[in-house]
Amino acid sequence: MRSVDEIGNRQVYSPATITTMFISNFPDGTRKEIIKRIFSKYGDISDVYMATKKGLNRRNFAFVRFRGVEDVARLEAFLQGLKCTGSMLEVNMAKFERNEAIKIIRVIRDIC
């Protein structure tokens, strides 16, 4: 069941209806707009966050947030095998929600 409220002419999604995917292995210099364009074909994008520093494995990473996903496993399966300028993207369901992920990113920045 989706938790969506109508306010005026727009729909407002509760955090329970936001699905966050963790994306890695895209080339240096990839812009947020490119990531958004690739993933917008597969659902309604709420937000894209691209880290400014690489992860502990020295790879670029980003979080793509989708609104109103009804079947998360199906979405994750559809996103497998996507490429960004020739590089095979690694896509997984995010292990943490946004606030938790921000804390982890800050720890990574402090380490690097």
TrEMBL record:
CDD domains in UniProt: RRM_SF (cd00590)
Keywords linked to the UniProt accession: mRNA processing, mRNA splicing, RNA-binding, Spliceosome
Domain RRM residues, every copy: 19-96
One of the GO biological process terms: RNA splicing
GO cellular component entries: spliceosomal complex
Molecular function, one GO term: RNA binding
Family matches, as Pfam families: RRM_1 (PF00076)
Superkingdom of the source species: Eukaryota
Name of the featured protein: RRM domain-containing protein
Source organism per UniProt: Lactuca saligna (Willowleaf lettuce)
